[in-house]
């Protein structure tokens, strides 16, 4: 199956790349999650548009990624969440909440798809999340989940 990627897929490619994958992987994983579209003639013409849109959102180069990494290391990120008396959250912490908390703490604007929340954060306290800034730069971000 020939697909055009809409987002960065680890071990497969970057947005705008035309890739050949097995039918099941494309049909059951990439297409339902809107990570890719079927490569038709019309869609191939939109590849350049997808790449331009991604360029505006992404970190420019390795140097810029390292600069953003140092900014993230120097901020204290607090994620507010509703919790019960025992300290368990009603729900879990999402990448959107982490992005909003980084922005509120005065940090750089991040893409929610670049944040990996390990497992499900369902308790109050300090936790670690991974942020993929560049293919060569991944950083750990310490967040504090507090009750609202």
Describe the fold and architecture.
The chain is an alpha+beta fold. Helices cover 31% and strands 26% of the residues. The protein has 5 helices and 7 strands. The strands form 2 sheets. It has a 4-stranded mixed β-sheet with strand order 4-7-6-5. A 3-stranded antiparallel β-sheet has the order 2-1-3, with no helix packed on it. The termini are far apart.
Q: Which percent bin holds the helix content?
A: 25-40%
Query: If you compute it from the alpha carbons, what radius of gyration comes out, rounded to the nearest whole angstrom?
Result: 18 Å
Question: What class, by secondary structure content?
Answer: alpha+beta
* DSSP helical segment count: 5
Walk across the major sheet and give the strand order.
4-7-6-5
Secondary-structure element pattern, one letter each: EEHEHHHEHEEE
User: What percentage of the residues does DSSP assign to strands (E)?
Assistant: 25-35%
Poorly predicted runs: none
Q: What overall geometry do the principal axes of the alpha carbons give?
A: globular
Largest sheet: 4 strands, mixed
What is the number of strand segments? Answer: 7
Which features characterize this protein?
148 residues; 5 helices; three-stranded antiparallel sheet; alpha+beta; four-stranded mixed sheet; 31% helix
Outline:
This protein has 148 residues and is an alpha+beta fold. The chain is built from five helices and seven strands. It has helices at 23-30, 41-45, 47-57, 62-73, 95-104, and strands at 2-5, 18-20, 36-38, 77-81, 115-116, 125-134, 137-147.
Topology at a glance:
Layout: E1 2-5, E2 18-20, H1 23-30, E3 36-38, H2 41-45, H3 47-57, H4 62-73, E4 77-81, H5 95-104, E5 115-116, E6 125-134, E7 137-147
Parallel strand pairs: 4-7
Antiparallel strand pairs: 1-2, 1-3, 5-6, 6-7
